[in-house]
Amino acid sequence: MTGPGPAAVEAVFRSSYGRAVAVLTRLLGDIDAAEEAVQDAFATALQRWPAEGVPPSPAGWIVATARNRAIDRVRRESTRDTRHRAALLLQDPGPPPEEGAVRDDRLRLLFTCCHPALAPAARVALTLRLVGGLTTAEIAHAFLVPEATTAQRIVRAKAKIRDARIPYRVPREADLPDRLGGVLAVVYLVYTEGHTASSGDRLVRTDLCAEAVRLARELAELMPDEPEVLGLLALLLLGESRRAARVSPSGELVPLAGQDRRLWDADLVAEGQDLVRRCLRRDAPGPYQVQAAIQAVHSDPPPDWRQVVALYDHLLALTPSPVVALNRAVAVAEVSGPAAGLALVDALDLPRSHLLPAVRADLLRRLGRRAEAAAAYDRALALAGNAAERAFLARRRAEVSPSDGAGA
Hints:
By secondary structure, the protein is mostly helical. Among the domains are: 6-91, Rna Polymerase Sigma Factor, Chain: A (Orthogonal Bundle); 304-345, no CATH class; 350-408. The chain contains 20 helices and no strands. Helix 1 crosses helix 5 and helix 6 packs across helix 9. The radius of gyration is 25 Å and the shape is elongated. Keywords: Sigma factor, Transcription, Transcription regulation.
């Protein structure tokens, strides 16, 4: 009888790599050494599990094997005194006492990967590598950057952590709100790139979406009393619930108004809406909770656009930005008409984004100003990097192309 193959090890790798690296990082105090030990453990699993079977606690087996491998390496490479101290440390599986709101190795690793001293791109790459277990090649492919660039970011981030002596710990409770925002921002960035890829042929990168949802679920499990954590999870689940309806069978983008709601994942909608209700009961609204509430309104047909505008008013007060103001203008157009929305759009400036000219083009189209709409679609096409979005804009551009020379 054939034992478990590489697929079984791969499943454990995806679910347990981050936890194992986190535990070994605490024990060793060195991210590179922890990664090396965990990789050795998984290589051993590939050799032994097909013959011996998957152990009852695969994650525990990986951690124990990685710890033993690290002990062996320390004994080979260290001086006698250092070897003795390191071996004692590695043989002690209990976490050291420490100050902090949360005592969990995965959270320590997340906060270390997302430390504000690291560049944003490095935080994302390091989080996906160490916490998510994605390979350097997978991360590079997801963000359409050279593998060497991604590898360099990860190496430099690890060096920064080491050289700057960035502590491997969860921030003190008083510092947690400020630092938590950086962690949530990384998870949100991973999801937004997966939800609507900034470039490439596909609209959606399902692997990034799945990884972001997994990280958000993990955060919600580890920090169940943080409303913004629940808000982010709700926001991602409600976004994921529509994935099957966002792209037609031929690969074309389908805007929200044209989606077949029968294709939405009802379980994800219900879970997301329940999380939004839990957040509302906390009465401590933050940006992710408000965004999730907006998506929850959209999940109940027909959407109450006045409520959407009110929520965007709140979001704009919390996080004033041109992107939020642009989304608010779209909602205002649904309540007060496209001319009202256009007046708001024309007061905004997003010079490097295709979103503003795309919204402006749609409002001009609805107002019957076809030539102006065509010009705005041209500007959006010049800025859009995703092939599916470009195809959608090109179809809309063709619809407003004057066939008889008529102007606005």
